[in-house]
Amino acid sequence: xxxxxxxxxxxxxxxxVGEIIGDWYLLIRTRAILCxxxxxxxxxxxxxxxxxxKIIFIFxxxxxxxxxxxxxxxxxxxxxxxxxxxxxVIVQVTSxxxxxxxxxxxxxxxxxxxxxxxxxxNNNFFEKLKQTSEYRIIISVLLSFSIIPITTILYxxxxxxxxxxxxxxxxxxxxxxxxxxxxxxxxVLLRFYAERNNTLQFMVSSSNxxxxxxxxxxxxxYPLDSSTxxxxxxxxxxxxxxxxxxxxxxFISVKNCLNESSSLGRYQGYIEEYxxxxxxxxxxxxxxxxxxxxxxxxxxxxxxxRE
Length: 307
Hints:
The protein is mainly α. The chain has helices spanning about 1-35, 40-65, 75-115, 120, 125-130, 135-145, 145-155, 160-205, 230-245, 255, 265-275, 280-305. The longest helix has about 45 residues, at about 160-205.
C-alpha cells in the first residue's frame, strides 16, 4: 500500500500542481503581449477549467484505492486504467480549448507585428521563433494537439486500456511538456533581447556619443520616450525608423501599453526583471531531475499494476 500511496497519490500532486502553475504562464505572457490590464474573461475561464481537469488526476487515485496489493485485482486495474484514459482525454480537450483561446488573442497581435516590422517579416522561421514570443507560444501549444488523434486511433484499433494509457502518458510527456520547456526558453530569449535593446537604447540616448544608426542584424526596433532624450537622438532615431520602414515596436509592444511620461522607466524596470535570471541552468537541471523522478515513479507504478 505504501508503494501505491507514493506512486499514485503523492507523485501526481507534485506533477500536476507544477503543471497548473506553468499553465498560468501562457495567460500572463498573453497579458503582457496584448499590453492591457483587462484581458477577456474567457481566457481566465478556460484556464481555470483546464486547471480543474488536472485536479481530477490529483483526487482520483485517492478514491480509486486497491483493497490489497498482495494479489492481482484485474477488475480494479481495468477500472483504474479506464479512469486514467478518460481523465487524460478530458485534460487534453480542455487544453485544446485553452490553447485555441490563447492563439485567438495572440493571432491579431502577431499579424500586426509582422506587418509593421519589415525586418521581422523578412526573417526566416527560426529568427522569428527567436525574436517573437508569440511564435514560441503558438508553436508549443500546437504540438499538444497531437495527443487527441493518437488516443482516438488507439481506441478505434480496440487496444487494451493499459496500452492506451501507456501510449497517452508517453506522448503527453513528449509533447505537452514541450510547453513547459518553452517557458524557460522564452524567458531566456526575452532577457537576451531585452539586454540588447537596453544597450542600443543607451547608445541612442547618449547625446555626447557617436550615434550608430544601424542596430545589430535582425534586431527589432524599440520605442523611445522623446521627453527623456535629446533633440539629436530623437531626430536620429526618427530618421532611422523612417529610412528603414521600421515602426517602433518590441516584444511587449511597450509603445502601446505604457504611457508617455513613464515608458522609459517602466521599460528599464522590465529589463531589470530579466537580469535576475542567471540561475537558468540550475532551473534546467532541476526540471530534468524532476522529470526523471516522475518517470521513475510512473515506471514503478506500471510494474506494480502489472503484477
